Amino acid sequence: MIDMNNPWHKVSVGESAPDVVNGIIEIPQNTRAKYELDKDTGLLKMDRVIYSSMHYPHNYGFIPQTYCDDNDPLDILVLSQISIVPMCLVEAKVIGVMRMLDGGEKDDKIIAVANNDMSVKHFDDISELPEHFIKELRNFFEDYKKLENKTVEVEEFQNALTAKEIIKKSISDYKAKFTS
């Protein structure tokens, strides 16, 4: 039974999806705390403090009313000049995707910009970001679980068009899973 008070199910994906989506932030940038939505209660829980001395380089969360192969909503990284507080709803313009494997399972990360942050809103595609941004992101996700003896492999970064196709599929998969 779906708990309609849970933000995963209660909040819409966004009227302009897949171009601009609602992102619900779980983890603000520059923290070592790994927060995640508790699927049963809809509350935010602290999963762990990440084992390495690294911190999340960008605001991290999920897109509501999406569903992926890992039985979770689709992950999203939201670029902004500020740290966005957990459980904040952010209008996010989709610019790309980081394709990765986490413990051998597909675990895509949509990359977006906060649509109401003028410092990043001008980006339309991941190809416009500085090369160092991609290097930092790859480095964080490949290394932050090493001290837990877990493996993450970043496969590739792809453009906004590919990201939007992934979002469409995750919306369709959500409907098949939860509204059929």
From TrEMBL:
Binding site for Mg(2+) 1: 70, 75, 107
Pfam families referenced in this protein's UniProt entry, alphabetically: Pyrophosphatase
Subcellular location: Cytoplasm
InterPro entries: Pyrophosphatase, Pyrophosphatase_sf
Catalysed reaction, written as an equation: diphosphate + H2O = 2 phosphate + H(+)
Keyword terms of this UniProt record: Cytoplasm, Hydrolase, Magnesium, Metal-binding
Tagged with keyword Metal-binding: yes
Cofactor(s) the protein requires to work: Mg(2+)
Residues noted as binding Mg(2+) 2 in the record, renumbered to the chain: 75
Residues noted as binding substrate in the record, renumbered to the chain: 34, 48, 60, 144
Record-listed E.C. numbers: 3.6.1.1
Protein family membership: Belongs to the PPase family.
Annotated function: Catalyzes the hydrolysis of inorganic pyrophosphate (PPi) forming two phosphate ions.
Quaternary structure and partners: Homohexamer.
Name this polypeptide is given: Inorganic pyrophosphatase
Organism: Roseivirga thermotolerans
Taxonomic lineage from the root: Bacteria, Pseudomonadati, Bacteroidota, Cytophagia, Cytophagales
Gene: ppa
